[in-house]
Structures are given as C-alpha cells and as structure tokens.
C-alpha cells in the first residue's frame, strides 16, 4: 500500500536535485578550483620527477573543468530532470510491469 507521499517523493527528490545542482553551479569554492594548465610540455623537456608531475598536472587540468562544482552541478541537474521525466512518463503510462 502506497501513501500519497510515496507517489510524490520521486518528484520532490528530483526537484531537490535540480535545486542543489543549480546552487552548485553558482558557488565556486576556491578549494575546488584547479590550476590553469601551463604551456604544453614536450617529452624532451621532462628531466626530473618534478617536471613529470608538472606535465601530468597540466595535462589533467586541460581536460577537467576549471572548477569541479560546475561539473557536479550539471550532473545533479541532469539526474534530477531525468528522474522527474521518468516518473512523469511512468505516471502517464500507469503500467505496473516496469522493470527498473
């Protein structure tokens, strides 16, 4: 037996995820800010462990967003919107044979 709250819980959770995602995209804490990548290191220029670490850091920083909270926020928004969409479509179908 389901209660009224059980019916609305996925929608509320989806809305909360979207809200948290939007907030995360607005806040950019300094602790999660990544360094800007330096000039592209050539393998010939890597002579020590410190040079290798710098080249690896700059390579990773070039692939990642400048602040990780934006990426996490975008993921939360997409997950919340997908949850709302799936549950809304599930209500329209009103089929008890869903296999998820």
List the helices and strands and how they pair.
Layout: H1 4-26, H2 49-63, H3 68-93
| Unreliable spans | none
Tell me the quaternary state: single chain
Number of domains: 2
Distance between the termini: 19 Å
Counting DSSP E segments of at least 2 residues, the number of strands comes to: 0
Q: Estimate the global geometry from the Cα principal axes.
A: elongated
- Helix/strand-derived class? mainly alpha
Count of individual helical segments: 3
Share of helix among residues? 55-70%
SSE string? HHH
| Beta-strand fraction estimate | under 5%
Could you tell me the mean pLDDT? 80
Biggest sheet record: none
Rg over C-alpha atoms, rounded to the nearest angstrom: 22 Å
Notes on the protein architecture:
By secondary structure, the chain is mainly α. The chain folds into two domains: 1-29 and 69-94; 34-66, no CATH class. Helices cover 64% and strands 0% of the residues. The protein has three helices and no strands. Helix 1 packs antiparallel against helix 3. The chain is elongated, with a radius of gyration of 22 Å.
């Amino acid at each position: 037996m389901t209660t009224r709250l059980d019916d609305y819980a996925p929608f509320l959770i989806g809305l909360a995820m979207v809200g948290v995602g939007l907030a995360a995209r607005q806040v950019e804490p300094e602790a999660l800010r990544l360094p800007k990548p330096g000039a592209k290191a050539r393998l010939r220029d890597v002579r020590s462990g410190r040079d290798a670490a710098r080249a690896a850091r700059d390579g990773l920083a070039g692939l990642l967003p400048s602040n990780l909270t934006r990426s996490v926020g975008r993921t939360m928004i997409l997950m919340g919107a997908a949850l709302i969409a799936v549950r809304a479509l599930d209500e329209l179908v009103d089929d008890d044979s869903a296999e998820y």
